[in-house]
Amino acid sequence: MLERAAPVTYADQVSAMTRGGVVLLSSHLEGFAKKLVELAVERIFDKQICMSKLPARFIYYSSQDLISNIVDSQHPDTIAKNLLALQSRDGKQIKSSGPLVAPIDFEVFERGFSTPKYKPIDKFLKRVGYNSLLGDLKARQRGQFQIIKNSVENLVDTRNAIAHGDSAEKRTPSELQSHIDFVKIFCRDTDVVFCDWYGANVCPLR
After folding, report:
1. Is residue 56 scored above 90 in pLDDT?
2. Is residue 139 part of a domain?
3. Which of 65, 95, 129, 204 is most exposed by smallest CB count within 10 Å?
4. More confident residue, 11 or 30
5. What pLDDT, on a 0 to 100 scale, did the predictor assign at position 13?
6. How far apart are CA 202 and CA 174, in angstroms?
């Protein structure tokens, strides 16, 4: 509205609004990926899924805070303290078969994921056993895959530049709307392929 009414007069306001929209849209995309994985983690406990259906990395990410403390320390007392904490908190969860005995702390599990681009999201979903996101999206989207991917990647790159104070990074309202449209498609299709695979191989998510 502002851009159409007086493009020169309201240029600064329009720029501020679209820059804010880019940041907000990128945050929504990150939140979507986290909620998808959180749903899987919750269902794994709720449905008492056998750990043999999950990759070994699932155990690592469930305990990565304490494991990192052990790996990063060179002090025997600190290492021993964290080993005891790991045994006490997660000892019964560390297994190759059988169900979890307690819910996973998702704040621990999701650590390290913050950039909602294709490769990081793909790696994030692999934490719960889904290894074919990019291939499944290509098969589903066909000729649109690269167009959608470019828009999503560009959105996140722009968001990062804005967050680091780059005042030259701007988007017009129409460009922002294009990002919104492609992010919607990406989220919809990712939800479909992930939930379809998970329902067939681990447990239903919907």
Report:
1. yes
2. yes
3. 204
4. 30
5. 85
6. 41
pTM here?
A: 0.91
Q: pLDDT by residue (tens digit) across 110-134? A: 999 999 999 999 999 999 999 999 9
What does the alpha-carbon distance between residue 14 and residue 19 come to, in Å, rounded to a whole number? Answer: 8
Please count the structural domains in the chain. 1
How far, in Å, CA of 33 to CA of 144, rounded?
21
Hey, what are 36's tokens?
Answer: 């998808």
Residue 206 lies in a domain: no
Three-state helix/strand/coil letters over 1-70: CHHHHCCCCCHHHHHHHHHHHHHHHHHHHHHHHHHHHHHHHHHHHHCCCCHHHCCCHHHHHHCHHHHHHH
Tell me if residue 205 falls in helix, strand or coil.
coil
Cβ density class 148-177: b for 16+ within 10 Å, e for less: bbebbebbbebbbebeeeeeebbbeeebbe
Instruction: Decide if 4 is inside a domain.
Output: no
* CA–CA distance, 119 with 32 (Å, rounded to integer): 15
Is residue 10 in a domain? no
The predicted-structure confidence for 132-157, as pLDDT tens digits, reads as follows 999 999 999 999 999 999 999 999 99
Give the domain range for residue 185.
25-201
Mean pLDDT of 71-98: 97
